[in-house]
Amino acid sequence: MTGPLHQRIRTDIEAKIRSGDWEPGYRVPFETELMAQYGCSRMTVNKAMTALVEAGLIVRRKRAGSFVARPRVHAPVLNIPDIQSEIVARGEAYAFRLLSRAVRAADRDSPDEIELAAGGKLLELQGVHDAGGRPFALERRLVSLKAAPEIADADFEAAPPGAWLLENVAWTEAESRISAANADTEDARLLALEKGAACLVVERRTWREGQHVTRVWQLFPGESYDLVARFGPTP
Fold first, then answer.
1. Is residue 95 part of a domain?
2. What is the pTM of this model?
3. pLDDT tens for residues 83-96?
4. C-alpha span between 139 and 161 (Å, rounded)
5. Domain, as residue range, for 62
6. What CATH code is carried by the domain that includes residue 175?
7. Do 107 and 201 fall within a single domain?
């Protein structure tokens, strides 16, 4: 590769992250290790690492080193939330109740499912996230077994599907859509709500290097969940 050495170092590290070889939380080699590997100065390595931090691909932790960051969605004000972590951070007991689990083919009349399956099978999941013994969110999810074959045998008692995917599949692109809905009879029963209660609906899709990974619908009681974004002027 031609061009400045710091750009080559950045490109090499970025390729490892985007390919999934270095997963979120992986410790990037120390600057001294990269200096020895590339035969360059600390300034050159630091320039490459700074660019990776600014791109949101790595995070630096004082006295610990640099680590692969959790990827962000297109809009930098929105993260893919880990419901389990959010509930635990509030000091409440968390549980995930798996209601149904099935492997099936894509619906031939659904272009979205056909794209997601990519010629393989889909894992269809439905479950409820509980906070403090009360329903917090209803989740319906489809996962491409071609993109994430290991999830077919995953134990969701240890981690819910979303947390499993965040930990095991390094996504590179995500899309979220937020809307409002009134709970129908079944959703109201599962969320312990009155029929017609106001709910927040979050629909999310993720890809890995252009390959569709998952599509999920999450339904939250309107009074128990909100999304916050802070904006400022562009410098």
1. yes
2. 0.65
3. 888 888 778 899 99
4. 10
5. 5-68
6. 3.40.1410.10
7. yes
